[in-house]
Amino acid sequence: MTTIFFAMLRREVQEHKVAFIYAPFIVTIVLCFVIVSVYFGITDIQTAEFNFSTEIYDEDYQEAMLQASPEAKARVIRAGLTVLALPVLITVGFGLLAYNLSTFADERKDRSLIFWRSLPVSDLTTVVSKILFVILVVPLMILPNIILLQFVAVMSASIYFVSNDIVSFGYLWNSYIITDWFRVIFSLWAQALWTLPIFTWLMLAGTYSRKPVLGAVVPLVATVVLEGIIFKTNYILEFIVERIGFWSRSESFPKKYEEIRVVDVPDIYLLFSTPEFWIGLIVSALLVFGIVYTRSTNNDYTVE
After folding, report:
1. CA dihedral in degrees (244, 132, 206, 102; nearest 10)?
2. Which of 63, 76, 38, 33 has the alpha carbon at shortest distance from 157?
3. CB 65 within 8 A of CB 169
4. Closest by Cα among 258, 263, 223 to 239
5. Residues 132, 19: Cα–Cα separation, whole Å
6. How far is CA 135 from CA 138, 191, 192, 263, in A?
7. Residues 93 and 195: beta-carbon distance below 8 Å
8. Which residues contact residue 96 at a Cβ distance below 8 angstroms, ignoring those fewer than 6 apart?
9. CA-CA distance, 105 to 203, in Å (whole number)?
10. Taking each helix axis from N to C terminus, what angle separates 70-109 and 23-39, rounded to the nearest 10 degrees?
């Protein structure tokens, strides 16, 4: 069974390199070029909400950097590196949206479902392999891009600091902890579990609807509208909105963070202690049952 799962996961990786390997890597390279360009004085980015420029490093800012405590310095560095990685995460997010909608719809469209049914692999095994790909494998595929982006950012900033006598070369490296990579991957795995109800719902739409996008959107809109009319509540809409966002910034998460940051590992245990997390897993399990049942009884191999 383990061999079968590895083979199926390897197939998913091979078939979706563009969305989860090439696209994030291209975005990462572009971001690296922008970071290097800023620190070498080629360009800068200044908007009302965001300022990424070497002009901020005046005497007052330099003094604040020198006086900052190790904890404050690490917090700022972690927050900055997390913000830099957001475009990569958004790119992968769109890739996951397309993957979940199309993964079961495509096999109906090109009639490959007939071939897969001829193999000694159950529908449950196939569905679980795709869910494991989304939850476990995709975050691992993102991690090298985040590491590369962080390395380029810290190296570029360090060269700029020492070249302009702002702080020493090791100023950032002393607070850049490699173990943070484990915090990143665990946080991404937790995010995948948190968003799993959305993923499984999109997969279900691909198993039964000839138009997966409409199959995913129309029932949700109708349910939200009916809930508002009949019960005067909006629990379903709130559930959907929370699952799309970061789990550490949801209203149901006990701790409140002012800044965007990679959470601490104990926060993940705190997430597991919330009833909202387990409600999401129960909903996901029911949707998985629906996917398996619909796929196993599906004799309509056409998708528009």
Report:
1. 90
2. 38
3. no
4. 223
5. 17
6. 7, 9, 5, 18
7. no
8. 19, 134, 138, 199
9. 8
10. 150
Q: How far is CA 284 from the centre of its chain?
A: 17
Burial category of 264 from C-beta neighbours within 10 Å (exposed 0-12, middle 13-18, buried 19 and up): middle
Could you tell me how many residues make up the chain? 304
Query: Do residues 39 and 156 make contact, with C-beta atoms less than 8 angstroms apart?
Result: yes
What averages of pLDDT result for each successive group of 10 residues across the chain (304 residues)?
80 92 96 90 64 70 78 79 88 95 85 72 89 95 93 90 83 76 89 96 92 93 94 92 88 76 80 93 97 83 49
| Residue at token pair 């599906």 | 298
Q: Are 246 and 191 in contact (CB under 8 A)?
A: yes
Residue 178 CB neighbours (<10 A): 8
Six-digit token string for 151: 């390395």
The Cα 240–Cα 221 span in angstroms is: 11
Domain boundary assignment for the chain: 2-296
**Residue 233: its pLDDT value, please?**
92
**Three-class DSSP category at 51:** strand
Q: What is the CA radius of gyration of the chain?
A: 22
Q: What is the pLDDT of residue 303?
A: 47
Residue 77 neighbours by CB distance under 10 Å: 22
Q: What are phi and psi of 279, to 5 degrees?
A: -60, -40
Of 144, 157, 119, 138, residue with least CA distance to 199:
138
Q: H or E segment at 46?
A: strand 45-46
In 3D space, the residue among 83, 18, 75 whose CA is nearest the CA of residue 45 turns out to be 83
Closest to 55 in 3D by CA, of 70, 68, 71, 39: 39
